[in-house]
Design goal:
The chain is an alpha+beta fold. It has a domain of 145 residues: outer membrane lipoprotein receptor (LolB), chain A (Clam). It is 15% helix and 37% strand. It has an 11-stranded antiparallel beta sheet with strand order 6-5-4-3-2-1-11-10-9-8-7. The longest helix is centred in the N-terminal third of the chain and has 10 residues.
């Protein structure tokens, strides 16, 4: 089968969006954690997120059936991110600082969401306070921190769990290595990051895209 038949049916397109839900941080989320010391794992993870100005990383996306896609993530805070999928995959997910856009070049469709309503808000917006709404999940490893975030008013966002690993070379001494998205239909998707690089020069035009609708028949 071709990559389009095996990987780009409608369910996987939905999974691609769910997989990029780094953390649901709407106006009203799950009940906040009890007060914690400033040196807590949660505070350190929040500091690590806020310490990222620019970042590039390779990513691997895996759904619950084991189907896998890969590509490169490019991040520039505040507000800008790009998920460029591997060669042969006609899908792009990008934020220009105002809206999160999914571009499907195969069917010439473009979908957009305000960043403020996007589950990616915790990673993109430095004003979002994950420490107020996240919940630590025990890992049994002092070097690994797991944070679960959910939006009670928007169950369609599902549950997002971010994984951090201690790394003195990463901002805040902790590196975001993966996240797991469980959507409202209990479909699980995992994103794993590798080869993270911080503080790299990234031009704003890295977060632009070619609109496939402009060249569509009849236009």
């Amino acid at each position: 089968m071709t990559i389009r038949k095996t990987l780009f049916d409608k369910p996987l397109r939905s999974l691609a969006v769910a997989a990029l839900a780094v953390s649901a941080t709407g106006a009203a989320l799950a009940p906040p954690l009890a007060a914690q010391s400033s040196g807590s794992q949660l505070d350190q993870a929040v500091a690590a997120l806020r310490g990222i100005s620019t970042m590039t990383a390779d990513f691997t996306q895996t759904d619950r059936n084991g189907q896998r896609l890969a590509g490169q993530m490019t991040l520039k805070r505040p507000g800008k991110i790009r998920f460029q999928y591997q060669k042969g995959v006609p899908l792009l997910i990008v934020s220009d600082g105002k809206a999160l856009t999914m571009v499907d070049y195969e069917v010439r469709q473009v979908q957009r969401w305000p960043i403020g309503n996007s589950p990616l808000g915790a990673l993109l917006d430095p004003k979002r306070d994950v420490s107020r709404y996240g919940r630590l999940i025990a890992t049994g490893n002092p070097a690994v921190t797991s944070i679960e975030v959910r939006d009670a008013k928007h169950p369609e966002y599902g549950v997002i769990t971010m994984i951090f690993v201690k790394d003195p070379g990463a901002p805040g001494g902790m590196e975001l290595t993966s996240w797991v998205a469980l959507d409202s239909q209990n479909k699980r998707t995992t994103i794993r990051l590798a080869n993270q690089r911080y503080g790299v020069a990234i031009a704003d035009n890295a977060f632009s895209y070619t609109d496939p609708r402009r060249n569509a028949p009849g236009r």
